[in-house]
Amino acid sequence: MGVPLPGDFGRRAREILAGRLAPVPARDAATVVLLRDDPAGLEVYLLKRKPTMAFAAGAHVFPGGSVDPRDTDHAVAWAGPSPAEWGEALHADEGTARGLVCAAVRETFEESGVLLAGRDDDTVVDDTTGDDWEADRLALIARTLSFAEFLDRRGLVLRSDLLKAWAHWITPVVETRRFDTRFFVAALPPGQRTRDVGGEADRVAWLRPADALTRARAGEVVLMPPTFHTLTEMATFETIGDVFASDREITTVLPAPVEVDGQIVLMVPGLDYRRTLGGLATREATP
After folding, report:
1. 148-205, pLDDT tens digit by residue?
2. 228 CB contacts (<8 Å, ≥6 apart)?
3. How far apart are CA 172 and CA 254, in angstroms?
4. Per the database record, which ranges form the Nudix hydrolase domain (predicted)?
5. Cα(71)–Cα(75) distance, rounded to whole angstroms?
6. What is the pTM assigned to this prediction?
7. CB of 42 closer than 8 Å to CB of 198
């Protein structure tokens, strides 16, 4: 059993499977599972995308987005594992890895106000809530300010060691907007706090992974397959330390359309469809 592909998605899938339509190329993107330890248990930060968004409308997602060409700039001040080391972890070339890590840090700041950067490789900024920070965040979103310029202006370095590579999902070929997305995990830095920054989201929340999954199964929230799968994994951990201490081998997941008894369905590895369909969107991942 798979996730049914209705309407245009089903028709596109048939055309692609028949070789009459070429899939849209997937753009490199990064997503960050932001974590915090709470007395009630490990929590994750989720944004509810506005219903007017062209992609993943109304779904609860992690912060993330496409790689900006400037994210690969060697001018981005860097501390922690090098782009070459990240390339090995992500199974990507050095330039792509540089862009993915930079996009992960930039998008997290743009969509949550949390900045994984510091004055040097031993420090992290502890407050990003002032008006000047907000002006820079909006300039990054508008792409009038590059991340390299932002860091240089503030005398900061990107802290790549605050991220852990987690997963690799590629949007199914049936989508008209596709992303080749690397998932990372990161802890909320001491002193920093998330805030409702608006933009693409109309609601944000910290939730225990198990609670988010329960709400999805009840149809109260919509989760894309990668989000559901990642929350299922996060629900097995008690603390951030447990997450970072876990061994992780990155494998690529590409949900595939198939025809079953005359119906086009999307097969997503690792999901228990019978338990998830209540709150599982048929459309794919992140940005």
Report:
1. 999 999 999 999 999 999 999 999 999 999 999 999 999 999 999 897 665 555 678 8
2. 213, 216, 271, 276, 279, 280
3. 6
4. 25-229
5. 9
6. 0.90
7. no
* Reported CATH class of domain 3-279: alpha beta
In the numeric block, which tokens belong to residue 237? 């951990």
Q: Which of 181, 164, 163 is nearest to 224 (CA)?
A: 181
Retrieve residue 252's tokens. 């690529």
Other C-beta atoms lying within 10 Å of the C-beta of residue 47? 23
Tens digit of each residue's pLDDT (9 = 90 or more) over 26-77: 999 999 999 999 998 999 999 987 654 444 456 899 999 999 999 999 999 9
> DSSP string covering 191-245, please?
T-------TTEEEEEEE-HHHHHHHHHTTSS-B-HHHHHHHHHHTT-SSHHHHHH
Contact 58, 48 (CB under 8 A): yes
